[in-house]
Amino acid sequence: MEECFIRYRLSPALLLAAPFALTVGIASARVIVGPNWGLVPLMAVGPAVAAAIGGAVYTLAAGGLALGMCTLFLFCPMTGQQARRFDMIGLVAVAAVTAAGIAASTARRRREHELAEVRLVADTAQQVLLRPVPSQIGSLRLAVKYLSASSQARVGGDLYDVVEGERGVRLVVGDAEGKGLPAVQSAAALLGAFRDAAHEEDSLAAIACRIETSLGRQLPDEGFVTAIFAEISADGSKMELLSCGHPGPLLLGNAAPRFLDTGEGSLPLGLGHLSSEPRIPVTIPLNGYEAILFYTDGATDARDAAGTFFNLDRCNSVLSAGRYDTLVDRLSRELIRYVGHAPDDDIALLLAYRG
Fold it and tell me: DSSP letter at 307?
């Protein structure tokens, strides 16, 4: 199927002419080799191919040509009795295949239209859930990439957002537990609470506490979201981090890439009632570092065919960072090549770097 679509893009006229060329070719072969070889039924291939690549009218046109050829052969006065049987079989076969092809192509077009509408709704939902991140806030540049575990999916449980405030840039990257609609609902609940709290609260701990309270009213029992919050100062000299069960980001710069230690990891959001320990942010000086890569665990849990985990801090895209504006795109392509197919888990990448 993929090869068919590639050919269609490269030579649409050639592909559209294929059913008619097949019919004419089979008819020519029938004239050359004679009427007793039973080639006429093969002309049903033309409308069958047309139904696979076009709509009802296109299929009817290809079937009409094949039926016309069959009729000419059937009523040819030089055709013998045995050949007439082949021609009659061919006429019936072409008529049946054309009718079935018209029905099939009509149903396929209806499904394609419905799928297009579903994808439009999903794209709209994605814009609401994962709204576009600005490419630059002050001297800080941002780049994001979302890899879905399903080629048909537009939204999932991984999340990110960035908010500009008086104290600098605040951001969140997270991963809702579970799959499907429940995970999307959890992600939406966290992002909605974050977008309010990031503007109103004076610390990351207060933001996390407020989101925890909000999620407690919305998440199902034992539902949770891992998340990491960051506040990058306006001058870009330091960053405050608060991890809620989420892996620390990767620091990139002149030195070797290194994962940040976020201190004592607190429980994911939604499970805070299970511990009395407060969530304590850590402050990271950014002198000597040019970029911070936030990610969800789909990036570090990705495996190749042999079951070997992807080394995010030692992969080619990170070690040869070069231009940071293309890093998340290069990294996403490398992840897909490493796994060999769509990732088994959603992956969200957010890169913050100095402009």
Answer: -
